[in-house]
């Protein structure tokens, strides 16, 4: 009726696009109680770019300062490949996790430790 269903469905499909590691880290990051505004904007922009690609949304109203900051942060990544944005999100997100929740970062790293190539 109001279009909410389509937006929610699009968001759910996009989140499914992110790999298990991406989704797990996003969940861990949500548990960080406070980051700086700059850190939060960088995470937000890379998350959106990784899942939705370039920002095609209308700019928020002039008095929506938070919405404008988020919109502009995402716009700055225009042209960045979603794969690159995801890689940056994973690296920066892990760095934040290590900074604010070191025990969770250790657990995450142990769970997703990449196997070292075996010598032949």
UniProtKB/TrEMBL annotation:
<dbReference type="InterPro" id="IPR035984">
    <property type="entry name" value="Acyl-CoA-binding_sf"/>
</dbReference>
<keyword id="KW-0446">Lipid-binding</keyword>
<dbReference type="InterPro" id="IPR000582">
    <property type="entry name" value="Acyl-CoA-binding_protein"/>
</dbReference>
<feature type="compositionally biased region" description="Basic and acidic residues">
    <location>
        <begin position="10"/>
        <end position="20"/>
    </location>
</feature>
<feature type="domain" description="ACB">
    <location>
        <begin position="18"/>
        <end position="102"/>
    </location>
</feature>
<dbReference type="InterPro" id="IPR014352">
    <property type="entry name" value="FERM/acyl-CoA-bd_prot_sf"/>
</dbReference>
<dbReference type="GO" id="GO:0000062">
    <property type="term" value="F:fatty-acyl-CoA binding"/>
</dbReference>
<dbReference type="GO" id="GO:0006631">
    <property type="term" value="P:fatty acid metabolic process"/>
</dbReference>
<feature type="region of interest" description="Disordered">
    <location>
        <begin position="1"/>
        <end position="20"/>
    </location>
</feature>
<protein>
    <submittedName>
        <fullName>Acyl-CoA binding protein</fullName>
    </submittedName>
</protein>
<dbReference type="Pfam" id="PF00887">
    <property type="entry name" value="ACBP"/>
</dbReference>
<comment type="similarity">
    <text>Belongs to the ACBP family.</text>
</comment>
């Amino acid at each position: 009726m109001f279009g909410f269903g389509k937006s929610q469905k699009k968001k759910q499909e996009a989140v499914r696009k992110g790999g298990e590691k991406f989704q797990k880290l996003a969940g861990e990051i949500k548990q960080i109680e406070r980051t700086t505004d700059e850190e939060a904007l960088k995470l937000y922009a890379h998350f959106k770019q990784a899942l939705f690609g370039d920002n095609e949304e209308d700019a928020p109203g002039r008095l929506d300062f938070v919405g404008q900051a988020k919109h502009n942060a995402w716009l700055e990544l225009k042209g960045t490949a979603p794969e690159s944005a995801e890689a940056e999100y994973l690296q920066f997100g892990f760095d934040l996790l290590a900074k604010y929740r070191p025990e969770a970062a250790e657990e995450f790293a142990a769970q997703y430790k990449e196997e070292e190539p075996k010598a032949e």
